[in-house]
Amino acid sequence: MKKSALRGMPSDSANYVVAHGIIQKSKRKNFSVSFRGIRNPRKAFEAAVAEILARKLLNVDAFSVAEMLTNRSYKNHSATAHLGRILHLLKGVVIGTTLKKMDDTVFSNKLSNYLRIIQEEGFQILLTLPFSDKEGCEEKYYICFHKEDGILLSFDTYGGDSINGGHFYYNWQPSNNDPKNGYKVLSSGGYRKDGAEFIWAGHHDCRETLRLHIYDLRKNGKFVTPWIEQPFIWLLHYMDTKNPSYDYKAINKERLAMLPPEVLQSITATRAI
Q: Which of 57, 138, 166, 268 is most buried, by CB atoms within 10 Å?
């Protein structure tokens, strides 16, 4: 590989860091570039390799692989379905290991590590609400905010020290105001027009690949703050829903009222969807 291969690659991309490292090694030189805050060149190279692998693995459908191996449909062939489940579990283990190499979030996050990562990403903890599960174990519900990008993040714990689930909510505009630039990096939500501009109001699951999701959104567009549209927001922990008569709108309103005024100004849109 020649140095000319680096032309056109964003210098903060995993492909650039890996290509640069290969070129260095071909010249019998040491790794020499950083990657997303990782200053140790060798660790930076390993994290970049891990990201490329993770992107490939995240797009693998375990059941499709099983069907390819058996030439049968998992829907009506029990052995293929069983193989698909095994491959899905193995995929999860490999992805988890790979994401940890990237220092990104995984499905089975420990609270202390998750809090470290979100604070490194620029989130501030706005609200911590204690609650108890049905066994009496003390849990916590968090609401956090990224001031620069206008991202609202909420999640709860289980077992006291693990992340149960949650989402991050945002407004976002695709590069060149072209909706086609966003479909590979977006999740739940929808586009709305603000004059001539396309604005995506949506949310992502906040457990796995939080860093990667936010990086991809930044590379393919820009976050919009204050919000133009308010996406569907769910500011409830899992014990809130154990009450058969719970009112999510009332709970949302109560918890929004606990947030600082400047945050409310950023996430209170002119119209809601």
A: 166
